[in-house]
Amino acid sequence: MDDSLQVARRQGVMALTLNRPDRLNALTAPLCAALGAVLAEAEADPTVRAVLLLGAGRGFCAGQDLAEVSPGQDLGDVLEYRLNPVIRALRASRLPVVCAVGGVAAGAGASLAFACDVVLAAQSARFIQSFVRIGLIPDGGGTHALPRLAGDARARGMALLGEPVSGAQAEAWGLVWRALPDDELLPEAERIAAYLAAQPAEAVARIKRALDAAGANTLDRQLDLERDLQRECGASADFREGVQAFLDKRPARFGRPA
Fold it and tell me: Where do the domains of the chain lie, and which CATH numbers do they carry?
């Protein structure tokens, strides 16, 4: 495993820390490969029930490490074989992914955060879509996520002007779930990840699937999908446990599906 990614496990949570603090955790080929490999490992491991994504040091991720990119290089290939597999893995994962953004999340670093399920930001965090300043477009799913999260006008402003958006502003715009005082960011991210790890895994996975489909579905198609997914949830051991716990007036004890 490349040492630019640190992996720790605790009570069903796999914590992944981007570990290039001297480069504000900028993305490299080895780091992207390590992320992809560990996300696949988490997906296949029945003891992992949630993922927590962090950045070491004073920033979350400054985007692609430009020291790895040379003039004339095919940037489409850089995306196709490095970053895009990671974004697809995050979005397709049945596991809930929590992201804690402290400091800068620029370019592909911001896109990486926006691909997660629950994003927390320090109030001092800065989200920057700075691609236009070097003659590029937002990537890593940025042009997909920004209008859906913040609306078209704000997405265009962020992409075309490249101005930083603070953690507090990101919360107001709907880019993140919550902005917190800097010293509360990590404890709250760990708390939420632990909470999600204790929830019914089958229901969590199907909630993600339903929400991901909603943007492309008509109401009728979404109602059909909800019907089908609810039928599956209703046949699960988690549903039986949840109902019994409610009747018994005790906390539910959900287990990982087979």
Answer: 5-197 (3.90.226.10), 201-248 (1.10.12)
